[in-house]
Amino acid sequence: MKIGINLVGVSYNNAKKGGRLRNYEDSIENFFKFIINPLKEKEHEIKFYLFSYQNEKQEDIINNYSPCLKHSFINDNLNRVGGGDKNSNGYKVMSITYLNSLYQIQNEDLDLIISTRFDINFFHNPFDIYKYDFQKMNFLWREPEYMDVPIVNDTFVVFPYKMLNNVIDSIKEMEENPPKGINVAMHNWYLPMVNQVGEENVQWVDDKFITATDNKLYKLTRKE
Q: Which of 3, 30, 5 is nearest to 220 (CA)?
């Protein structure tokens, strides 16, 4: 398969002018060890697409994620604001960034998208632990908040490229008409995605309630 790795969000911030301390270098080694190299060993073709904020390491970042097909590094002030802060159009910063990252991969020759973050230090290969269906939208697990909505983990999302426009429209719906009025991070994504492609085409690879900050698969390396 031709797999697009869509890396989104803060890649590096020294936090001297505000925001959380983040450094992609804390995560990249294990990202290649547990995600990229095993995929290459199965003879999948890997292409990187980066969407982040301007910083002093961005040229290294482009070189380190090779081959990098496309990259965008926008307003460095966004390193220092909260992802849940809203833009003038009412969308959260994180959602706008995510949408722009997806626009960047439109009209590409790909079969599958793995959309994730720069600051995840993996301990295992999720494709070894969980049963992924590459014809569906795959969320990792359910987050234990607003448990009747339901809420998803949004840190590692896998979907077929043919669903790209559905994913884009689901994020817009999540912002403009969040189910049950819950507008928290990008977690209220399940029902908008179901509205786009049907419940039979959306799955959690683990139906348990697990948090992004306390799990056995990875650690978020961001620091306050």
A: 30
Q: Given CA atoms 147, 148, 149, 150 in this order, what sign does their dihedral have? A: positive
CB 128 within 8 A of CB 33: no
User: What residue spans of 57-204 are helical by DSSP H?
Assistant: 58-64, 93-104, 126-129, 164-176, 190-197
Q: What is the pTM of this model?
A: 0.94
| 3-class DSSP state of 64 | helix
CATH of 2-220, one of 3.40.50, 2.60.40, 3.30.70, 3.90.550: 3.90.550
- Which tens digits make up the pLDDT trace of 71-105? 999 986 665 655 555 665 678 889 999 999 999 99
CA 154 to CA 188: how far, in whole Å?
A: 9
- Residue 99, number of CB atoms within 10 A of its CB: 18
More confident residue, 80 or 201: 201
